[in-house]
Design brief:
Elements lengths: L4 E5 L3 H13 L1 E6 L3 H11 L2 E2 L3 H5 L4 E4 L3 H13 L3 E4 L7 H14 L3 E3 L7 H9 L6 E7 L11 H17 L3 E9 L8 E8 L4 E7 L6 E7 L3 E6 L4 E12 L2 E9 L6 H15 L7 H22 L2
Helix pairs in contact: 1-8, 4-5, 5-9, 7-9
Bound molecules: nicotinamide-adenine-dinucleotide.
The site of nicotinamide-adenine-dinucleotide has 25 residues, from α1 and α4.
Length: about 325
């Protein structure tokens, strides 16, 4: 992995962190950002080259992260794969499923690793719950509420924030949404900045997901219910409690045991990039491939259709 020649395209808020991780994990060649001033700043910090064009960077690397705005993911990833470069594309994968299909096809034809940055998959709480073998939950509810930031305004809150919980819903259930109802409000931008979706999946699971990018108090929580237990994940505070029906008692609720799971502190972005680079070397499946990225994109687009119908009422 240390010999892998890597680069980052787009070194704004998140891309700078990608660059830092590659610098520690691989032979980090350099960056390209269309904002030359920003590129020079990050290149100076990491002592790497700021390339003058995307093509110049692609000619020198084996693998890149694409951390540009979503509206540019397709064009940049297409150029990278045409140059034979493995890609980790930030979420959301692309703007629509046609773009996603083209990139998935290119990766298959050219035997390239195509990963999508659904980073919550590597969260220790989610990994714990997947390994616990509880099966598909009956019901999930999530809140992902963030203060307003003038970034990712080329997309709505569904693609920006709710897509994380949609991804976890599909991952934990292995099912597809069949009935999606949603509401949303364009509070600050011209796109939905708050949304609430209620969906039934084809295995009977129900999910209720709320997202906002215009609140004062941030929250990132998910509650997951099975027949005999429920899990409460707080992504902000890195806690996981699992409440089991049976022996033991939580004060005031007889017959319920509270299991507070000790979660390791993990650098999620380093874990995600390490997994991507490992997949290139070992040919093992990547943590989130293009097909999984497309699957959650399609679900997010279903939510958007429902929100748009609501907004037009
Ligand atoms: N996985 C996550 O949790 C997560 C979190 C935040 C952002 N993101 C995603 O990361 C991406 C970037 O978000 P951000 O917050 O860093 O945005 P940002 O606006 O801070 O950075 C984007 C950078 O890309 C550059 N850029 C724009 N078009 C370009 C092009 N064609 N070629 C090269 N550089 C270009 C801009 O100059 C800017 O420096 C978005 O897709 C966003 O959805 C993912």
């Amino acid at each position: 992995m240390k010999n892998m020649r890597t680069g980052v395209i787009g070194v704004g808020h998140l891309g700078r962190f990608h660059a830092q991780k590659y610098a520690a994990l691989s032979q980090f060649v350099g960056i390209f950002d269309q904002n030359a001033e920003r590129a020079a700043e990050v290149a100076a910090e990491l002592d790497c080259q700021a390339f003058s064009s995307v093509g110049a960077l692609l000619a020198e690397v084996d693998a890149v992260s694409i951390v540009t705005p979503t509206s540019t993911h397709f064009a940049v990833a297409e150029a990278a794969m045409q140059a034979g470069v493995h890609c980790l594309v930030e979420k959301p994968f692309t703007l629509d499923t046609e773009e996603a299909d083209t990139l998935i096809g290119m990766a298959q034809e050219r035997h390239l690793v195509l990963a999508v940055g659904h980073i919550k998959r590597v969260h220790p709480a989610i990994q714990h719950l997947r390994q616990a073998g509880y099966g598909a939950p009956r019901y999930l509810e999530a809140e992902r509420l963030a203060p307003f930031k003038p970034r990712s305004l080329d997309i709505d809150v569904i693609m920006d924030l709710m897509i994380h919980d949609l991804d976890l819903t599909l991952l934990l259930t292995g099912a597809e949404p069949v009935d999606v109802r949603a509401v949303g409000v364009a509070a600050v931008t011209d796109k939905a900045d708050m949304a609430n979706a209620w969906m039934t999946l084809n295995n009977g699971t129900v999910a209720n997901l709320a997202a906002s990018r215009v609140v004062r108090e941030p929250a990132r929580r998910m509650r997951i219910f099975w027949q005999d237990r429920y899990a409460s994940v707080d992504f902000l505070n890195n806690t996981l409690h699992i409440y089991h029906r049976g022996a033991g008692s939580v004060p005031g609720i007889p017959g319920v045991r509270d299991e507070a799971v000790e979660l390791p502190k993990r650098d999620a972005l380093a874990a995600e990039i390490e997994d991507f680079l490992n997949a290139i070397v070992t040919h093992r499946p990547v943590f989130c491939d293009g097909i999984a990225g497309r699957r959650v994109l399609a679900a997010a687009l279903q939510v958007r259709v429902a929100v748009e119908a609501f907004l037009q009422h």
